[in-house]
Amino acid sequence: MNYENVMKLALERGFYFPSCEVYGDAQAGFWEYGPSGVGLKNKFLELWRRELVRRDGMLEIDGSQIMSKSVFEASGHLGSFADPIIKCTNCKSTFRADRTIAEMAKIDIPESADLEDFDKAIKENDIKCPKCKGTFENTKKFNMMFKVGIGPEEEIAYLRPETCQSIFVDFPRLFKIMRGKLPLGIAQVGKSFRNEIAPRQSLLRLREFYQAEIEVFCNPARLQEIERFEEIQDTVIRVQTESEPVSMTCKEAVERKIIPNKFVAYYLGILTEFYEKTGIDITKSRFRKLGEKEKAFYAEVAFDFEVETTIGWLELVACNYRSDYDLSSHAKKSKEKFEVMDNDEKVLPHVFEISMGIDRSLYTILEHSLKDDKENERTVLSLKPYLSPIHVGVLSLVKKDGLKEKTDEIYVKLKRKFDAFLDHSGAIGRRYRRLDEIGSPFAVTVDHQTLEDETVTIRMRDSMEQKRVKVSELDSILGEYTSFP
RNA sequence: GCGGAGUUAGUUUAGUCUGGUAUGACGUCAGCUUCCCAAGCUGAAGGCCGCGGGUUCAAAUCCCGCACUCCGCACCA
Questions:
Q1: Would you say residue A297 has pLDDT above 90?
Q2: How many angstroms separate the CA of A433 from the C1' of B22?
């Protein structure tokens, strides 16, 4: 199914919808998750914790969304997260100052240069708008970070543009008090904020968005020594270094030097295993190795995990080897010590980052799971049972003859353990289809036989088959089918 | 940010040229009926027609501005 179908489902069934929609001054790039969306998101994150955080013995923290100016001076975001832009006085088009000058006059000015340098170059080389030959306004800096004023004096701080900075600045304390040993993963889920010029496509480019980030601190001298590599050496990943993605095992990827070391390969491996369990079609995925110009300013080696959807390849995760970029800049700026002992060696750890976009991942799960079942005239959201916002619908075949009361009784028993949904209203087929659309994998139906022998039917979403089971067994059956893998 | 197209109920849609406050479908709710896959009947709720301004006796409709959505360009640590 395509973007339009997913959007319709999202709006009709409460997965997500525009923020502040009743007001005309609502800004673009802000969306809310409704009940179904929150259900899916919570379960997705639980899976992430199981498959990455707990599997690897990582620490999870929850940091501030507003962070001080110093953090971003050290991180480089105040300098490099801003683009020098020029605007044409005639046609109002905007361009990157450094790129336009490089293109038109063959002069390289670093993007972090003073704004006067750009203006000077434009004047001296008589650079005009490439579109309409108009003249340019003075160069401005466009920083993607949201500024906030703190306290009555409105001291400047920023909404974080990525969650990971708290992991870096908290590292010295965490390593000490949590008795850390390299390699050590520290994880965080939370919101980040970027003032995108053109937010678009609902969850795919937001100004306020969720990230699940992992920073693995490691000794750069020991990147070939990761013990747990054996666990994933035979896991098949798809890697694209040139034109087409190629499937290979993690072991092969390291041997052929497509991935630089076992350490990076291990994390790409467990990441692939995680995404496989979300129900995303992994044959439509790739780790795309980024070229020099595409990489973020802090990255030494970078792989984007991308998945193909009906609107093209979507970047779900950025995997960056950030070297000691972050720790050394924070050490220098804060004058704190960031070195730690690894066996008998004092090292400033390097960082490998797995920066996941949660919103885009959820969209992709929805798109890959949404099926148009023409044969049975229904729309089915074939979510993995453990990700479904509703685990089980509890339905009465008819309301009369005491079936309603019996159904209520069963619902009360189930609802504290499972995400259960009670429904008495309308024809039974209609109720099944409603459940199909929000991805509920099971429906329990109470009929006349229930009153006689304490059995109910349990209907499977995907096959539409039904089995008769004892009410007393529901707990264990549902528990088994809806538990995380 | 530039260019283009659009915005009418939860969703989808007619009406806009040719001005007279809105149509159908699906969905929702209640009742009856049937009782295992969107059946039927009856009834109901739900719209300041994206927002603001202008023209007019009168604006969903004409004009202007803005916002948002989608497409293309640019941008995307």
A1: no
A2: 32
Rounded, the Å distance between the CA of A24 and C1' of B64 is: 18
Predicted ipTM? 0.90
**Domains by residue range for chain A, with CATH:** 3-74+153-368 (3.30.930.10), 82-143 (3.30.40.230), 380-482 (3.40.50.800)
Task: Say if residue A49 is exposed, middle or buried (CB neighbours under 10 Å; 0-12, 13-18, 19+).
Answer: middle
Least confident of A174-183, A286-295, A378-387, A455-464: A286-295
Residue type, A166: S
Measuring from the CA of residue A446 to each C1', which nucleotide is nearest? Answer: B36
Q: Name the one residue in this structure whose structure tokens are 């087929």.
A: A429
Q: Which nucleotide is nearest to A18 (CA to C1')?
A: B68
A242, burial (CB in 10 Å: exposed 0-12, middle 13-18, buried 19+) = exposed
Residue A131, pLDDT > 70, answer no
A32: three-class secondary structure by DSSP: strand
Distance in Å from B50's C1' to A133's CA comes to 37
| pLDDT tens for each residue of A387-428 | 999 999 999 998 888 888 899 999 999 999 999 999 988 889
- What is chain A's mean pLDDT, rounded? 90
pLDDT digits (tens, 9 = 90+) for A67-106: 999 999 999 888 777 777 787 776 666 777 777 777 777 7
Spatial distance from the CA of A18 to the C1' of B19 (Å): 33
Positions on chain B within 7 A of a protein C-beta: 1-3, 10-12, 27-30, 34-39, 50-51, 66-77
Please report, rounded to whole angstroms, the spatial distance between the CA atom of protein residue A249 and the C1' atom of nucleotide B76. 31
Reading phi first (left if > 0) and then psi (alpha if -120 to 50, else beta), residue A250 is in alpha
Residue–nucleotide distance: A17 CA to B14 C1' (Å): 26
Task: Determine the protein residue whose CA lies at the shortest distance from the C1' of B75.
Answer: A197
To the nearest whole percent, how much of chain A has pLDDT over 70? 97
Q: Which of A264, A261, A275, A253 is nearest to A216 (CA)?
A: A264
Minimum mean pLDDT among A38-47, A244-253, A293-302, A462-471: which range?
A: A293-302
- The three-point CA angle A243-A245-A251 to 5° equals 130
- CA–CA separation, A180 and A189 (whole Å): 20
- Interatomic distance A16 CA / B36 C1' (Å): 32
Which nt has its C1' nearest the CA of A457?
A: B36
Identify the residue whose Cα has the smallest distance to the C1' of B50: A24
